[in-house]
């Protein structure tokens, strides 16, 4: 038999029992550790998938909860029954308070009229100032319009800007 014949020949089978039990135990332990490692990796992968699905479901649940809460608030806020309850409570609680406070305010104003007079005077002055300002603006706009019309009709140069009127 040549070397090449020996190379192509089928390997011989031996039925010999391992001579060392420790090697057999080590082989079994290595196989078991490999199998446990794969099982742990599959479990980790499954746990990661479940965690991802749980996060998606939590976000969906939060959106649905917010939508349900908004719908409930809208339903309550637009409910005719709630309107009647609120109106009744306002009538029952607020009206007596307003009447009591209004009486106190009127009494105070009767005793100290200067307080309200200063307020009214300030309001009157601001209203008059606003009215005068509007009249001035309208008069200026009218002057400008008349100057343009006059220029077009007579082909004259427009007047120079009028001096601002003296304060009243």
Q: Overview of this structure, please?
A:
The chain starts with a helix and ends in a 14-residue tail after the last helix. α3 packs across α4. It is elongated, with a radius of gyration of 49 Å. It has four helices and no strands. The chain has 168 residues and is mainly α. It is 82% helix and 0% strand.
Number of helices: 4
- Distance between the first and last residues' Cα: 137 Å
Please summarize the sheet with the most strands.
none
Give the number of domains: 3
Structure characteristics:
0% strand, single chain, 168 residues, mainly alpha
What's the topology here?
Elements: H1 3-8, H2 21-77, H3 80-111, H4 113-154
Helix pairs in contact: 3-4
Short structural summary:
With 168 residues, the chain is mainly α.
